[in-house]
Structure formats: structure tokens, C-alpha cells
Write a structure and sequence with these properties.
It comes from Trifolium medium. One of its GO terms (molecular function) is kinase activity. InterPro entries: Malectin_dom. This is LRR receptor-like kinase. This protein is mainly beta. The protein has a domain at about 1-45. The chain is built from 1 helix and 3 strands, in the order ββαβ. It has one helix at about 30-35; strands at about 15-20, 25-30, 60. The protein has a 3-stranded antiparallel β-sheet. A hairpin with a 2-residue loop joins β1 and β2. It is globular, with a radius of gyration of 13 Å. The two termini are about 20 Å apart. The mean pLDDT is about 85.
């Protein structure tokens, strides 16, 4: 859920590259744009992701933008 919390450490950092199981599945994901407003959830679906050992690894890397 997008909350628009603005703290010193996170101010403006809302554009991420998304990795699942070590594989980039989306580049420059903008949570604010995708949510369309504060308090709205975002649901993403990705295909061809192999989950091993009952563990899904999700990483959001700041793309250095926004």
C-alpha cells in the first residue's frame, strides 16, 4: 500500500527496479504513479518465477531516480 511517508531517509525515493529470485522483472517501477494516490494498494503479477525451498526472494533496488 502506498502511504507517501516522507522521512529524511526515504524522501523522493519511490522508483525501484524489482527483482524476484535474483532476476529483474521490472525496471523503474514508480509506486506513486502505479498506485494512483495515497492509501491505495498495488498488486503486481509476474510469470516464470521459480520458487525454490519454499522461499520467494523479493528485492527492491532504488533506481537512483525519483
Amino acid at each position: 500500500m502506498f502511504t507517501d511517508d516522507q522521512t529524511f531517509g526515504s524522501l523522493g525515493r519511490r522508483i525501484f527496479d524489482i527483482y524476484l529470485q535474483g532476476k529483474q522483472v521490472q525496471k523503474d517501477f514508480n509506486i506513486a504513479e502505479e498506485a494512483g494516490g495515497v492509501g491505495k494498494k498495488v498488486i503486481k503479477s509476474f510469470k516464470d518465477v521459480d520458487v525454490t525451498s519454499n522461499t520467494l526472494e523479493i528485492r527492491l533496488y532504488w533506481a537512483g531516480k525519483g
